[in-house]
Amino acid sequence: MPMCTIRRNPTMNAGQEGFSLIELMIAVVIVAIMVAMITPQLMRASARAEATACSGNVRTISAALAEYQLLHQSLPPGNSTQQIQALVGDGLLSNDALQGSYVIQDTDPNNIAVSCAANGNGAGGMNNGSGD
């Protein structure tokens, strides 16, 4: 029976295992650069999403105010929070509307302004209370 010998692969060096410190540092620097480039984009996307949500909520609150005015021939009494609570109480808004911060300016019942105070940029919408 012939004897079989096992040979080591000459291309593998016994002293070279894993990554060197330089290779690891380069990988960390590349990841840090990528994070630095992506973070501002994510922040802008978050701000755009907040502004879009605010705009949609302002339209919904404006429509609910118009419907309340048609049903009751007046606007809900009180400050903005109390008015939104009245709209929720009448079933014209969902409870989600209570989570935001909105300002309802209703000094002129024919020109009601609803704005979103959550993002501080004055984004908002107008509702003409006359039903036009």
Fraction of residues in β-strands: 5-15%
Order of helices and strands: HHEEE
Low-confidence blocks of residues: 119-132
Number of helices: 2
Helix/strand-derived category reads mainly alpha
Number of domains: 1
> What is the CA–CA distance across the termini?
104 Å
Mean residue pLDDT = 80
- Shape category: rod-shaped
- What spatial order of strands do you see in the largest sheet? 1-2-3
Gyration radius from CA atoms, angstroms: 31 Å
Largest sheet: 3 strands, antiparallel
* Helical proportion, percent range: 40-55%
Q: How many strand units? A: 3
Would you kindly provide a brief summary of this structure?
By secondary structure, this protein is mainly α. The protein has helices spanning 21-72, 80-89, and strands at residues 102-105, 112-116, 124-127.
Task: Record keyword descriptors for this entry.
single chain, 132 residues, mainly alpha, 3-stranded antiparallel β-sheet, rod-shaped, disordered C terminus, N_methyl_site, transmembrane helix, Bac_GSPG_pilin, methylation, Pilin-like
Element layout with pairings:
Blueprint: H1 21-72, H2 80-89, E1 102-105, E2 112-116, E3 124-127
Antiparallel strand pairs: 1-2, 2-3
